[in-house]
Amino acid sequence: MSSDLAIEAQGLGKRYVLGERGRTPLRRNREEIWALRDATFEVERGRAVGVVGHNGAGKTTLLKILSRITVPTTGEARIRGSVGSLLEVGTGFHPELSGRDNVYLNGAMLGMRRREIKAKFDEIVAFAEVERFIDTPVKRYSSGMYVRLAFAVAAHLEPDILIVDEVLAVGDASFQRKCLGKMGEVSSEGRTVLFVSHNMAAIRSLTSKALWLDHGRIAADGTTADVVSEYLASTIDQEVSGVVDLSENASRQTVGKFTAQRVRFTSVSLLDADDRPVLAFGEETPLRVDMRFDVRTPVRFLELYVRVKTIDGQRLFTSFGGQLESTVEPGRYRTLCEIPENPLRPGRYAIELVARAADPEDIVPTALTFAVEAGHLEEENLRYVTRADGVIRVPSSWSALEPDDAPTGTLGDAARRVPARGS
Amino acid sequence: MSAAATTEKQQTLVIRPPSGFSGIGLGDLWRFRELLLFLTWRDIKVRYKQTLLGAAWAVLQPFLTMIVFTVVINHIGRVHTPIPYPLFALSTLALWYYFSNGVNLTSASLVGSAPLITKVYFPRVSVVLSPILAGLVDFCLAFLLVAGAMAYYGFGPPLQALLVPLFVVLAGFMALGLGLVLSALNVSYRDIRYAVPFVLQLWLWATPVAYPGSAVPARFQLLYKLNPMTGVVEGYRWALLGSGHVHALNLGVSIGTALVLLVGGALYFARAERAFADVI
Description:
The structure holds 2 protein chains of 2 kinds.
Chain A: E1 5-17, E2 32-44, E3 48-52, H1 59-66, E4 74-80, E5 83-86, H2 99-109, H3 114-128, H4 143-155, E6 161-164, H5 173-188, E7 192-196, H6 200-206, E8 209-214, E9 217-223, H7 224-235, E10 243-245, E11 263-271, E12 277-278, E13 280-281, E14 287-295, E15 302-310, E16 315-324, E17 331-339, E18 347-357, E19 359-372, H8 376-381, E20 396-399, E21 417-420
Parallel strand pairs in A: 3-7, 3-8, 5-6, 6-7, 13-19
Antiparallel strand pairs in A: 1-2, 1-4, 8-9, 10-11, 11-12, 11-14, 14-17, 15-16, 15-18, 18-19, 20-21
Helix pairs in contact in A: 2-3, 2-4, 3-4
Chain B: E1 2-6, E2 11-15, H1 26-31, H2 33-47, H3 56-76, H4 85-112, H5 114-117, H6 125-152, H7 164-188, H8 191-206, H9 221-226, H10 228-241, H11 248-272, H12 276-279
Antiparallel strand pairs in B: 1-2
């Protein structure tokens, strides 16, 4: 048992009994599930470790056991050092209290001393950018301000071991970046971090090792790069035919259970110009997404979206099919979304399908993945502009060089244009 | 769950499935003492937020009840007391409200803190303790009213008034002991939420708050003596106003019950709290 280990877990398991408490005369009818089973792993001191897996795979259960919120059914964990856990931002925020009061209350809840909070108070408020409203009750805050203040408190925790659940899913993009930066600082300060996220880009940039939990068991434990690619590969159960059956798509779980499911996607495929399903595209061919779905009960104001993402889950663009004013009656439907000119540079991409009618009806975060292959444009281009420079190609034209002696803005007609396609 | 083994600088926490009886974690409660203070302070600060009358509610509750009692019990029911009835009722109502609000608020406290309990670790007992501590502020406000009434009726406090705080603490312990059991039960069985206010209402009438112990008919004497709140209320009244007697038996029942409730409640709570986050 080396003392260089911050966390040592031996056969940790957690069993839940399903079914309503209270009136249960027939106890034997209760169903049991193991949310976590036989989890054995070690985390070295000062290391940032990512935890990946579908919803319901046991990630949060693991974090809850390690942060002492719930007790394990089996096994044992040894934790060396103080633990700060962040399973939600703003735990304990009271709407009636001012921002100032909540900083103290929330800080104490997360295990900070009053003196410590006092010393960091100005820094916390500045990080959250809520200086003007610090004495206003937080119920008057916008949701953005609320989240920023809550995260700011948490970001100033200084435990030996920091346990973080999917908390970056909140807040606007720029604040998310700021949080990622702050978390990067935390892990580079030699603190041990256990970080759960569905955002593979964040896992990759913040952690060096990762655990993959699948149905309560540890499916892989190793370097982040290996574990993440193994995990991503498993989420794609694509059929060779190119038509992907979505009835049991596992990625739905990552968005939770809040979709109404009156509309449910059944299959999706990418079509070439001759309507044949394909799994790879050239660079100048149109992107054609053929999706089929069932409507179970009549739906008004149906909206369909096709979202194209990188394999890491970074959103690139979203095509919106418009809102259908008329009621869609129950039945099977299909529609084709066509993007005339494929703007994607070579690489692998994923398609997310979304159906909404005021509220989300169905979301399939990874409906299918596909490849874009390099053609003549990119073969030339890739020598100068790598994927790190961007993954979208937009048409552009550059004028010929000429001496800068004319007033600006008169380049116009005189310039001889050279057609070019840059990235 | 057990924490132990401290090396030079760093503690090792061992997390394992619980077995048998576990301690109530007084060590952790001490480590998180600032949180307990913050929770208490939050309860005080939040209680009368966005109300027109604010903290006046703490005084209005016993005051208005006293008026109703004076009309119904004193004038209509013709129950007579050795001291002016309004003062008689008001003084004990202040204590009774401390006790009954304490039981009410604590029994709902864990369920009311469900978002905290499922998301962060802290000694769960602190959310049960904080309403009892915060209730002292309300009691002090109501007690000012009692002091005013004493001055109005020309009652100087007797020497034994120094014992009043002890009876207040006894009422607080009784509420805490009940709160520990009821709050933990309420996590699994929400019936508690409906039962507690109702039972407290009945209990008020079974306790010599609105009437003196001497008015209790002989056939109810046993029940009257077994009521653990009898000793608290009578003792408190004796200490504050010098009226009535303190029976050793009544006081013994009160102190004994409070101790049993506290210890038993704490043990039950310690056992139940393992499952709070899963069941709540």
